[in-house]
């Protein structure tokens, strides 16, 4: 290092990856048909999710499953340098009407979670991520950035894909427009034999 040079390390950081997934008109038509054909149940204020938690098992969405699997591999094996294989376990569509939102939550029994956006209002629709760790100091910042923030808001748009650790708290921000927001969420776990010696484990997923 040079004298007076400063280096910052994001110590034990949690990684969120963002990708733009593009499909042709025929693919988008298949996705929207799958959204329409599912049965939904209310889960919070003006927000519903499919009763089916394996929507990616639909043969007509094979192309989507394949693309998401590719992006998961990039996230886990390229960015995070994992040697293990990973698999999508559950997947479901979510609809959020005007004034709809969700509370902060995370996902159990998965290592990573993801969300793919089908229909949004690009000017207003956002997803929020929050760190609920309690700080012993209450300080003001000149400007919030990736090193000091406890909350991150990401604008959403059709084709946006986010992948993040399943234990990170997140929520659907309130839908302030009349249009319906539609997304598909999914969970990911390692599969096959993981670990080694007395900490080895073989996982077989559906």
Can you offer a commentary on this structure?
- There is one protein chain.
- The chain has 206 residues and is α+β, with helices and mostly antiparallel strands.
- The protein has helices at 25-37, 62-79; strands at residues 17-20, 40-44, 47-50, 85-96, 112-119, 126-130, 151-155, 160-165, 169-172, 181-194, 201-203.
- The longest helix has 18 residues, at 62-79.
- It is globular.
- The model has no long low-confidence stretch (mean pLDDT 93).
Q: What's the SSE blueprint?
A:
Layout: E1 17-20, H1 25-37, E2 40-44, E3 47-50, H2 62-79, E4 85-96, E5 112-119, E6 126-130, E7 151-155, E8 160-165, E9 169-172, E10 181-194, E11 201-203
Antiparallel strand pairs: 1-8, 2-3, 3-4, 4-10, 5-8, 5-10, 6-7, 6-9, 10-11
Structural class per helix/strand content?
alpha+beta
How far from one another are the termini?
A: 50 Å
Helix content: 10-25%
Oligomer: single chain
List keywords for this structure.
alpha+beta, 34% strand, 206 residues, three-stranded antiparallel beta sheet
Summarize it:
With 206 residues, the protein is of the alpha+beta class.
């Amino acid at each position: 290092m040079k004298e007076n040079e400063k280096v910052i390390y994001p110590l034990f950081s949690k990684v969120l990856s963002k990708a733009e997934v593009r499909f042709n008109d025929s693919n988008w038509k298949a996705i929207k048909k799958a959204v329409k054909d599912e049965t939904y149940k209310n889960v919070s204020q003006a927000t519903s999710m499919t009763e089916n938690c394996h929507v990616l098992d639909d043969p007509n969405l094979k192309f989507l499953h394949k693309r998401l699997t590719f992006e998961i591999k990039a996230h886990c094996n390229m960015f995070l340098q994992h040697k293990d294989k990973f698999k999508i376990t559950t997947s479901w569509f979510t609809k959020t009407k005007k004034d709809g939102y969700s509370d902060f939550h995370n996902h159990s029994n998965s290592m990573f979670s993801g969300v793919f956006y089908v229909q949004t209002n690009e000017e207003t629709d956002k997803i929020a991520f929050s760190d609920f760790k309690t700080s012993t100091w209450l300080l003001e910042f000149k400007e919030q950035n990736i090193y000091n923030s406890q909350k991150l808001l990401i604008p959403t748009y059709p084709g946006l894909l986010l992948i993040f650790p399943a234990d990170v708290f997140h929520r659907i921000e309130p839908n302030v427009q009349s249009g319906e927001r539609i997304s598909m969420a999914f969970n990911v776990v390692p599969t096959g034999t993981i670990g080694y010696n007395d900490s080895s484990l073989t996982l077989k997923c559906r």
